[in-house]
Design brief:
With about 240 residues, the protein is an alpha+beta fold. It folds into 2 domains: about 1-145, Arc Repressor Mutant, subunit A (Orthogonal Bundle); about 150-220, Ferrous iron transport protein A (FeoA) (SH3 type barrels, Roll), CATH 2.30.30. It has helices spanning about 10-25, 30-35, 40-55, 70-95, 100-105, 115-120, 170-175, 210-215; strands at about 55-60, 65, 150, 160-165, 185-190, 195-200, 205-210, 215-220. A 6-stranded antiparallel β-sheet has the order 3-8-4-5-6-7. Strand 1 (about 55-60) and strand 2 form a beta hairpin. The chain is globular and about 55 Å long. The structure holds zinc ion. Zinc ion binds near residues 86, 129, 131 and 166.
């Protein structure tokens, strides 16, 4: 079954399930999905039943929902479309990183595989999107990203921003306003463990980050060498 035979709603469910597994280890359930997509549990349950019958999902009774191999293939193809479209909008059409998610949500259902592969080629086979999310290659593989949430980092850690959650434009504008972009070096000064808030230094300034912001930023240990932050990732593959 190709993507063309799935409705946009089905494609969205597969992508949401895949993305949920990407961000957390918590099992994906009907109620979790319902909270995420904003549809009633009964309509989510109906959709899950349909996708299960199509061989795209497995659903343990009253339990967790998982993608089958076929479902994973469809989901990864949607994720690839979404992230390449976001990258194209930023690189070629001057969109901000806070403006691309909703646009990509619409466009990802409309573009053909041919167009997606042409975008990939024109962009130089980018390995990550404007939010640091890894972009699956044409064959569905992508390098795992070992990033952790900033709010879990111990005081004294020096990290670089590897990824930010992309669904809340207001949060993205807030982070950009603080100069917290991909690859920016962040020094964790202190952590208020029970509030989940952090005091950090970045771009030569001290910042207080609330829990929603600190949770939305994913980081990697900073390279040991002092100096300029790593440049934005360019397509590293030849040809
Ligand atoms: Zn993104």
């Amino acid at each position: 079954m190709g993507t063309n035979s799935l409705s946009a709603a089905s494609e969205d469910y597969l992508k949401v399930i895949w993305t949920a597994q990407e961000w957390t280890d918590a099992p994906v359930t009907v109620s979790a999905l319902s909270a995420h997509v904003g549809n009633s549990p009964s309509s989510v349950s109906e959709a899950v039943k349909k996708l299960t019958a199509q061989g795209l999902l497995t659903h343990a009774r009253y339990g967790s929902i998982a993608l089958t191999e076929e479902g994973t293939r469809e989901a990864v193809a949607m994720v690839r479309r979404h992230r390449l479209i976001e990258t194209f909008l930023v690189e070629y059409l001057d969109y901000g990183w806070d403006e691309v998610h909703d646009e990509a949500e619409h466009l990802e259902h409309a573009v053909s595989d041919k167009l997606v592969n042409a975008l990939d080629r024109r962009l130089g086979y980018p390995v990550r999107d404007p939010h640091g999310d890894p972009i699956p290659t044409r064959d569905g593989s992508f390098p795992p990203l070992a990033a952790v949430r900033l709010n879990g980092c111990e005081p004294g850690s020096v990290v670089t921003i590897a990824r930010v959650a992309d669904a809340d434009p207001e949060l993205l504008r807030y982070l950009a306003g603080l100069g917290l972009h991909l690859d920016v070096r962040v020094h964790v000064l202190s952590r208020q463990a029970y509030a989940g808030t952090l005091t950090v230094a970045a771009n030569g300034k001290q910042l207080e980050l609330g829990l929603p912001a600190a949770q939305s930023i994913w980081v990697l240990p900073a390279p040991a060498t002092e100096g300029l932050p790593a440049p934005a990732a360019e397509g590293s593959r030849q040809g």
